[in-house]
Design brief:
By secondary structure, this protein is of the alpha/beta class. The protein is 26% helix and 25% strand. Helix 2 links the parallel strand 8 and strand 9.
């Protein structure tokens, strides 16, 4: 019987089949092969107790996408939730995550949440930057249900992961999509204006047939070190068209003269602040690579 892993707590996996949800364990052979089932995996199971809905995972199908942290397989779309205010937008984190989504080949959607709190309308600048690059940007106020219908439409026929720092409103958005309390909502600490992470387990919620969303632990330790520093520019998609204007083959687009990407920044064709964040991420990756040796 084939199914989808929709939840993982310790070594137990909840698997949704066509007709039921089974609580399963994994065969020991997976441990021997150093494979661990994860949420989003398509699996074959053998039922051991139909009345109690117990089963064993026999086979894990090949993954189209695999993300190590948080452990997720076969997602097709990541919804990057950024708070317009409280906490302030973390665009460095957003750019890291967008680069990683490009790297693994997953569609990206940016949600600017809590727009009602941004009295200076600074979120409009963020919307403009990323829309110009070609990303879909939604403006939402989850508590007032602003933008929720459009978000629901974008989620259809996808296995969606919600990503973003703690406190940006991921759980509130998910509750808003279902019109009920699906996840424990977190409160922003008024003392330090940072989010308190409330989500501890990865879980897929079914919206309708073929449409799921994953609520995942906070991404404050988001790691993109799988990307090589020299390849990073490939995943800043607005850079690609200017690479051919670089004088040097293997240009890092950091210190070189006559760099097509740097010229595009000077000419206002690439957002300067985003380019500066690219440089910062490049440096972080470079330092990690050097520490390995």
């Amino acid at each position: 019987m084939q199914g989808l892993i929709v939840e993982n707590i310790s070594n137990l996996y909840r698997v949704k089949t066509k007709d039921a949800i089974y609580e399963t364990t994994a065969r020991g052979k997976f441990k021997k092969d150093e494979i661990t089932p994860v949420v989003g995996d398509i699996v074959d199971i053998t039922v051991t107790d139909e009345r109690e809905k117990k089963a064993v995972i026999e086979k894990i199908y090949e993954r189209k996408v695999y993300i190590k942290r948080p452990k997720l397989a076969n997602i097709t779309q990541i919804i990057f939730v950024v708070s317009s205010k409280d906490p302030k937008p973390d665009l460095l984190m957003l750019d890291k995550q967008l680069a990683f989504a490009e790297f693994v080949g997953v569609n990206s959607v940016i949600v600017l949440n809590k727009t009602d709190l941004d009295k200076q309308q600074e979120f409009e600048n963020v919307e403009q930057i990323y829309s110009k690059i070609g990303y879909k940007v939604l403006l939402t106020d989850a508590k007032q249900r602003k933008g929720m219908d459009e978000l629901k439409e974008i989620l259809k026929n996808n296995v969606n992961a919600f990503s973003g720092n703690s406190g940006v409103g991921k759980s509130t958005l998910i509750n808003g999509i279902f019109n009920r309390d699906m996840t424990q909502e977190g409160e922003i600490s008024k003392k330090n204006r940072r989010g308190k992470n409330t989500t501890t387990a990865i879980k897929l919620y079914e919206i309708d047939e073929n449409t799921y969303i994953a609520d995942t632990p906070g991404f404050s330790t988001f790691d993109i070190s799988e990307i090589e520093s020299k390849a990073l520019f490939h995943y800043f998609k607005e850079f690609k068209q200017y690479e051919e204007n670089c004088e040097f083959i293997g240009c890092t687009h950091i210190k070189e003269e006559n760099c097509g990407i740097k010229k595009a920044v000077e000419n206002g064709e690439i957002d300067k602040a985003r380019y500066e964040r690219f440089c910062k991420i490049y440096q972080e990756l470079k330092e990690k690579e050097e520490r390995k040796w």
